[in-house]
Amino acid sequence: MNGRFAVAAEITPVFFLILTQIWFIGEVLSFFTLLPLGLVLASWVLRKDSFETLGLAHFNFKGFARLWLLLAAGVLIVLIIGAYGNPGFFRNKSFPLGVTLRFITYLVPALLQQILLNGYFVNRIHFLTKTRTSTTVITGILFSIVHLPNPVLLILTLFGGMISAYFFARGRNVYPLATFRLPAIPACHSS
What we know:
α1 runs antiparallel to α5 and α5 (95-129) packs across α7. The chain is 73% helix and 0% strand. It has one domain (3-188). The N and C termini lie far apart (44 Å). The chain contains 9 helices and no strands. It is mainly alpha-helical and 191 residues long.
């Protein structure tokens, strides 16, 4: 069995197991969750992925200036929409604490999702396609498909997945990519 076929045969069931978990089971932590995660962990070990290839080797945030500009613009847009939609948005006593708690409770899953999306899928898709452009587009499409149950997220995750794959290919660092998702918090909790 050639290497590309083996990788395609590996990621296909993982992707469909993740879809099953999200679309039909729904619970974040269930026994079924262990199956795709176990396959991913086994793949990382068998293929000898390193912290570097998974994007976990360093906290270097330099080289991500464009991403930080996008993040700042996204946060600003969210704050403007919040203030426009609710004139008392900033005067609400729970505003600072609520934002802080959402940040903390959202950053950990965002980091885990970036490790799975980039450290696993982007690496394997790039092995199959051999080009950054194809990897970026395919990753965006797959990430959007995963979010089909939430139509609010379709377009956001299509472009978010492509942007994430693009920056991961350039910098191999999941930490800033996890923080990039922070402007999406209100959209994720709206439906």
